[in-house]
Design brief:
528 residues; single chain; mainly alpha; 9 strands; globular; 21 helices
């Protein structure tokens, strides 16, 4: 019966929902995400040490190379976002994986520093520009309103499985082959061996995508249909997006959250060298790094379940988690002992599990159909200068406050990082109304709105609509984000002209929407 309500993940039970998600097309996305994350995080974790110890670059030069690398990922990401919408999910993944494999091959076999730098600035950055946003698009297209929150939560969990694996693998290879190993006539350092292992992961991803990924999307009735890309002119597509209010509000949001997100750049670029210079070359920085993904894997599903059951707004979760993550850096100001680094990573992880998965979900929730690639790349725009700044900042801080030889002042170094990261939640609190946008007259829900009235409406069964943009006739169209599971959208509704109540009783409210689907939504209203 098409009118039968489909149970949500909360109604099915956590374990039943988990098994169903893993056995669906989403399970393939999760496996691919694990392998891609292992490859990417292994590269980032060993980037600065490789460039300094093996290629002979200074701390500051290495930091700037890393910063430019991150900067170019964001630059290429804008063009890649449009191409992803044009090429589709499968072709984009195949292209990104091929480029990533070529990058690993050059890292393993080439010893010319200039060629390696050029590789990072071109092939490597383009590869990540495709792979980073495209998999989150797959989560949106392979899920529906009944399981999307859990879908993104598990997506984040598997990303951290990859990050968790890279830490012990790094420590194991460094321990087994401290001086490298010769394969036939080719001598590889421990870092090049690690890069070779990530190349194998890229090969696996390529064949999994080739066999198992399809360009389909899940409809709200649980059935699949082929996804047809909108082959519009690229310039016209961008013009349409910049007219949307959601586009600019998302831009502001991602700009303000930059500071706290850059902590992870210091986790890759600053922490390994800091630990080696303050606690010896043998310090297991990979294992300390692995605390973060291990905690995320355990806690993200639990926090997601609590957030869904208690109907906690996204804005509250993002800001609260950002305060905790931003404050985590201040542990490092206390002492140079290893326990402060452990406390830093644990506190950062607690904040991350609260806010970070919701960022992915929010970005995809405001993305219009067919424009997911552009919106998934949009958070990279304000990260242009920020990534460049963070890379250069990391190298400068290490060279000035934590040099390989000479007097160190690591407390000042981490204090500067902490002030930078803590600015994010403070600024988001100050500009909350701008991020949320103007409150509508009708009962509409925005995913970032944290007002008490909206919370009461949601608790009483009102829909969690979010304002998307304005149509050509100036009528605001609600974007269906996080609709409670008892709300069902019929497949073939009558066509409304405007968003307005058309009938009302004590227990039922019918709203007509101006959404592209022109759906009539019947809402079961429960009075207090």
């Amino acid at each position: 019966d098409n009118n039968q309500k489909r149970p949500s993940c909360d109604e099915k039970g956590f374990m039943a929902s988990l098994v169903k998600l893993l056995c669906s097309r989403l399970g393939v996305i999760y496996v691919v995400k694990f392998l891609c994350s292992f490859s990417y995080f292994s590269l980032c974790l060993n980037f600065t040490v490789f460039f300094t110890h093996e290629l002979g670059y200074s701390d500051e030069s290495t930091g700037w190379i890393l910063g430019v690398f991150g900067f170019l990922i964001s630059v290429y990401g804008i063009a890649a976002g449009v191409l992803i919408d044009y090429l589709g999910l499968k072709k984009s993944l195949l292209l990104g994986t091929t480029l990533a494999f070529v990058t690993r091959g050059i890292l393993v076999g080439v010893h010319n520093p200039r060629i390696l730098v050029i590789t990072f600035m071109t092939i490597a950055a383009i590869a990540e520009a495709f792979l980073i946003p495209v998999l989150s698009i797959g989560i949106k297209r392979y899920s529906d309103q009944t399981n999307r929150s859990y879908g993104f939560a598990l997506f984040y969990v598997f990303m951290n499985f990859g990050a968790l694996a890279c830490g012990p693998v790094t420590d194991l290879i460094r321990h087994l082959y401290p001086d490298g190993r010769t394969f036939s006539s080719l001598h590889l350092s421990s870092y090049r061996i690690i890069f070779g292992i990530t190349g194998v992961a890229c090969i696996l991803v390529f064949f999994i995508v080739l066999v198992a990924i399809k360009d389909v999307e899940m409809q709200e009735d649980g059935k699949e249909k082929d996804f047809v890309a909108d082959k519009k002119n690229v310039v016209q597509v961008l013009k349409e997006h910049v007219k949307r209010s959601s586009f600019w509000r998302l831009g502001l949001f991602t700009l303000l959250i930059c500071g706290v997100r850059l902590i992870f750049r210091h986790l890759d670029a600053t922490l390994p060298k800091y630990l080696m210079r303050t606690n010896g070359e043998s310090v297991p920085y990979g294992s300390i790094y692995a605390i973060n993904p291990a905690m995320v894997i355990i806690l993200v599903p639990i926090v997601t379940w609590i957030g869904n059951v208690r109907r906690i707004s996204i804005f509250k979760l993002i800001v609260s988690g950002s305060y905790l993550a931003g404050a985590s850096v201040f542990w490092m100001c206390i002492s140079t002992e290893v326990w402060t680094a452990v406390a830093f990573v644990i506190t950062l992880s607690l904040g991350e599990v609260v806010y970070s998965p919701r960022v992915y979900e929010y970005v995809m929730s405001v993305a219009p159909k067919g424009g997911e690639g552009v919106y998934a790349s949009l958070p990279g725009v304000p990260m242009f200068a920020a990534k460049l700044f963070a890379g250069g900042m990391s190298g400068w801080l290490l060279q000035k406050y934590c040099p390989a030889e000479g007097e160190k002042n690591t407390s000042m170094m981490w204090l500067i990082v902490g002030i930078t990261s803590f600015s994010s939640p403070v600024l988001m609190t100050i500009f909350a109304k701008c991020i949320i946008g103007p409150k509508p007259d009708k009962p509409v829900w925005d995913p970032l709105d944290d007002s008490v009235d909206k919370q009461k409406d949601l608790a009483n069964g009102m829909p969690t609509f979010g304002l998307d943009d304005e149509s050509d006739d100036g009528i605001t169209k609600p974007h269906m984000w996080g609709v409670p599971d008892r709300v069902r959208v019929p497949d073939s509704p009558p066509s409304p002209d405007t968003q307005q109540p058309v009938g009302e009783s004590d227990d039922k409210i019918k709203l007509q929407t101006g959404e592209t689907s022109e759906a009539v939504v019947e809402l079961q209203y429960q009075s207090e």
